[in-house]
Design brief:
16% helix, 7-stranded mixed beta sheet, globular, single chain, 2 domains, UDP N-Acetylglucosamine Acyltransferase, domain 1
Length: 406
């Protein structure tokens, strides 16, 4: 069976991280989200993947190529303008036949769920029960069949939402062609499905086991935690650990990386290639450190994602944060992750200040940003790419890309 992965979108709610890459290429557990999905598809027996790409498609093409590294055939289709999910699927129609999977590129799925969907003979819509259904497309079900889809209703009739996982046959394109443009200015696959339902076509509703909402940057921390728990069934040490370093729990240490004496690491923790860790640092659980990183003396990292090429050399604290590629944090940089009143941390997304629904959350820092010594970054701060922050600065709120902060 073929699988179509919708990977053309930018993911604006993921700014500042998506200024320089599409959402599907954001790193969790040291792999792009999209790579985790492709690996699970291959395990489930999918032999061909059609990637519908658009925004910063060069990063996707360069990373995956023809798919040979993952023992899967990868084909590409360009969606020149991001006009919605139905339009994205329409652009791949010439490569599809019979039955095929369609999956949002930011989905975190497991092989077992994919296999169950593939075994069905009718068309399938994946659903998931969530606490906040009003933020999603809510699915109504009668006798195991989809009865309707309501997009972000004020009073959701159920807690079941559309998980962005489908199994279609060629018949779906008849309804895609009949899909009108939505109030958001897009052609949406949920509208196509509703037209099909109104025409008497049946879709089976299938519950998805593991599904993580990937709408906002802090959701990456939940995905990172879940994947580290799953992937690290035991430690895998391919690099060097000096005498005097303490390792508790499970870690993955890639080749040509070194953990120096006096470092204290509590897993699950994943460390990429060519990293220099320590001496005398403290890395706490559910932290991923990408390739070519340096975590130096007197540094504490907690429950964070540190992307490729970033340096945190000495005397700094990073908690519950996401740090982009090729950043450098000056000595004494501290990222606060807990409000004084203990309430949920809020952050600015677009022109809105919203709750992260997290009691502890630090900052999101875009690529190639540098801080001077003794910088303080407050909870929920969103810092763009190529930002320069002067020594001693106190930073909060939203900092736009290419800004100098004094």
């Amino acid at each position: 069976m073929e699988a179509v992965i919708l990977a053309a979108g930018e993911g604006r709610r993921m700014h500042p991280l998506t200024y320089t890459r599409p959402k599907v290429m954001l790193s969790v557990a040291n792999r792009p989200i999209l790579e985790h999905l492709i690996v699970e598809l291959r395990k489930a027996g999918v032999s061909t993947v059609v990637l519908v790409v658009g925004y910063h498609d060069d990063t996707i093409r360069a990373h995956f190529g023809d798919g040979d590294k993952w023992d899967i055939e990868i084909k590409y289709v360009s969606q020149r303008k991001q006009l919605g999910t139905a339009d994205a699927l329409r652009s791949a129609a010439h490569l599809l036949k019979d039955r095929f999977l369609v999956i949002n590129g930011d989905a975190i799925l497991e092989k077992g769920d994919i296999e169950r969907i593939m075994q069905e003979e009718e068309m399938v819509l994946g659903v998931k029960e969530v606490e906040n259904p009003a933020d999603f497309g809510v699915v109504e079900i009668v006798d195991g069949k989809v009865a309707g889809i309501l997009e972000k209703p004020e009073n959701p009739p159920t807690n079941l939402i559309n998980a962005g996982v489908y199994c279609f046959n060629e018949e779906i394109f008849e309804f895609i062609e009949a899909t009108p443009i939505s109030r958001r200015g897009e052609y949406e696959i949920t509208d196509s499905i509703q037209i099909a339902l109104d025409s008497g076509i049946e879709f089976k509703a299938m519950n998805i086991g593991r599904w993580i909402d990937m709408g906002y940057p802090w959701d990456l921390l939940d995905a990172n935690k879940a994947l580290l728990n799953d992937l690290l069934a035991g430690s895998d040490i391919q690099g060097e650990i000096e005498e005097g370093a303490v390792i508790q729990g499970e870690i993955f240490l890639s080749e040509n990386s070194i953990i120096r004496s006096g470092s204290y690491i509590v897993g699950p923790v994943m460390i990429g290639r060519n990293c220099d860790i320590g001496p005398n640092c403290y890395i706490r659980p559910h932290t991923s450190i990408g390739d070519d990183c340096h975590i130096g003396a007197g540094v504490e990292i907690k429950n964070s994602i540190i992307m490729t090429g970033t340096k945190v050399p000495h005397l700094s604290y990073v908690g519950d944060s996401i740090i982009g590629e090729n950043c450098n944090l000056g000595a004494g940089t501290k990222i606060a992750n807990l409000r004084h009143d203990g309430g949920d941390v809020h952050a600015t997304v677009g022109d809105r200040i919203i709750s992260t629904r997290r009691r502890k959350f630090g900052a999101v820092i875009g690529d190639n940003t540098k801080t001077g010594i003794n910088v303080t970054i407050n909870t929920g701060t969103m810092i763009g790419n190529y930002v320069l922050i002067a020594p001693g600065a106190v930073v909060e709120g939203t900092i736009q890309p290419f800004t100098k902060v004094f």
